[in-house]
Amino acid sequence: MLSLDLTKLRGFVPEDYLTSRSEKLAGAASMLANHNGPGGDFTGWVTLPRDYDKEEFARIQAAAKRIQQQSQVLVVIGIGGSYLGARAVIELLCSPNYNLKKKDTPDIYFAGNGLSTDALLELISLIGDRDFSVNVISKSGTTTEPAVAFRIFKQMLEEKYGKEGARERIYATTDKARGALKGLADQEGYEEFVVPDEVGGRYSVLTAVGLLPIAVAGIDIEALMSGAAQAMEALSVPGLDNPAWKYAAARHALYQGGKKVELLACYEPPFRFFAEWWKQLYGESEGKEGKGLFPASVEFTADLHSMGQYIQQGERLMFETVVKFAPRGEFLIPNDPDNVDGLNFLSGKSLAFVAEQAMRGTILAHVDGGVPNILVELPAIAPDTVGYLIYFFEYVCGLSGYLLEVNPFDQPGVEAYKKNMFALLGKPGYEAQRAELEKRL
Ligand code: PA5
After folding, report:
1. Tens digits of per-residue pLDDT, 259-300?
2. How far away, in angstroms, is 80 Cα from ligand 1 center?
3. How many CA atoms lie within 13 A of 138 on its CB side?
4. Is the CB of 113 under 6 A from ligand 1?
5. Which of 54, 102, 305, 439 is catalytic?
6. Quick check: 128 pLDDT over 90?
7. Mutate to test the pocket of ligand 1, among 76, 79, 115 (most ligand atoms within 8 A of CB)
8. How far is the CA of 38 from the centre of ligand 1 (A)?
9. Backbone φ/ψ region at 298: left (φ over 0), alpha (ψ -120 to 50), beta
10. Contact 246, 115 (CB under 8 A)
11. Does the Cβ of 39 fall within 6 Å of ligand 1?
12. From ligand 1's centre to the CA of 48, what distance in Å?
């Protein structure tokens, strides 16, 4: 399903970059398989494509059908790992223009992923007087942004449909036992879905966190899981032929050789949000203890006309990982007898052929400019391809964290802003910190 070209790393990494890491890779793979490395309690995602809760999966499919029937709009409330995966998959498979398309599934809007008043007001006016349902997603059940958004949309639903009607339109995805959202969902009698204890937020797209909104968009979630299961089977085989081992070793060698930024590039515009998901996955997993590649992303060829200059000649601190999908269709460039634009040398050629040459030319130019390249190639964008790619990136991320000797499954740094925000908002218990911060502002 996935092929990896590492030939454009020659001269940038030592010849033995893979073999010299074989022992560490074997150790990392074993820690992932046995759940006994740092953060091992949060490695349930490793076997999720095989061991997922089948009964809950059927409930997700049934709930998705119900939402499709009851509403023209689904508001998905969540942030970080409780948001990015669903949006990434929906945009990649159904288009960033999903809401604009003619379809028999609801429009899907995302809320609670920020604190912008303008964005909230815009969303409320976009919903207008249409029927809507809400999927509120928070593993901890206490994150401020989604909690505030949920309070607002819950009230809107209750005003529109009454308490009983609102209950039928609210779907809560949260911890099985803890947190304010769990308490509220139990008390109000919402349909509940579980974020498994052993799966952290950014690894949770293949749980109810991602699957319910994805299914509402009409995407075949069985095919998505089956693609992930294929990846799980292929990547669990230890050895230096394993593409995940190769990619993790290459990233680590490049990082140790001074390349501090990994630029994820794709030639498909719907990939943009998938790259956002990828950035969180890698940024939160590796960026700690003063270490970690900085994950960045670009959309080609558009960004060749904006970021291309920097990539070619700016600070030599990055390498590129290009994700290439086979095209889903074909479009031939027409002939023009007048040839005023001088483009007849392309007449009859497919747009995909032109894109392919653009990609090949760009890779060589960037390599010549000191930007090593990794190429990941996949079949056409489809649920199983995307499931495969999700698992591939998750698995490489786990291996990479262990090569870097960090815990890839915690995120202690995220707490710092939250504590300051709570103190400044006057949350009870943060009084001393508030006085201290006010002095500094
Ligand atoms: O990856 C993570 O753990 C985070 O990005 C969380 O998903 C994010 O902070 C949201 O947390 P919660 O789902 O608890 O509201």
Report:
1. 999 999 999 999 999 999 999 999 999 999 999 999 999 999
2. 5
3. 27
4. no
5. 305
6. yes
7. 79
8. 19
9. beta
10. no
11. no
12. 19
Report how far residue 47's alpha carbon sits from residue 35's, in angstroms, rounded to the nearest whole number. 10
**Which contiguous run of DSSP H or E holds residue 158?**
helix 144-167
- In the numeric block, which tokens belong to residue 169? 């339109």
Task: Please determine, for residue 368, whether its predicted confidence score (pLDDT) is greater than 90.
Answer: yes
Are 3-34+225-410 and 45-219 in the same CATH fold?
yes
Q: What's the confidence (pLDDT) of residue 435?
A: 86
Residue 260 catalytic?
Answer: no
Segment holding 22, helix H or strand E: helix 22-34
Which region holds residue 277: left if phi is over 0, alpha if psi is between -120 and 50, else beta? alpha
Nearest to 174, CA basis, from 134, 207, 140:
140
- 45-219 adopts what CATH topology? Rossmann fold (3.40.50)
Question: Catalytic site residue 305?
Answer: yes
- Confidence tier at 415 by pLDDT (50, 70, 90): confident
For the chain, domain boundaries: 3-34+225-410, 45-219
Written out in words, the top-level CATH class of the domain with range 3-34+225-410 is alpha beta
Instruction: Please check the confidence at residue 132 and state whether its pLDDT lies above 90.
Output: yes
Q: CB atoms < 10 A from the CB of 135, how many?
A: 26
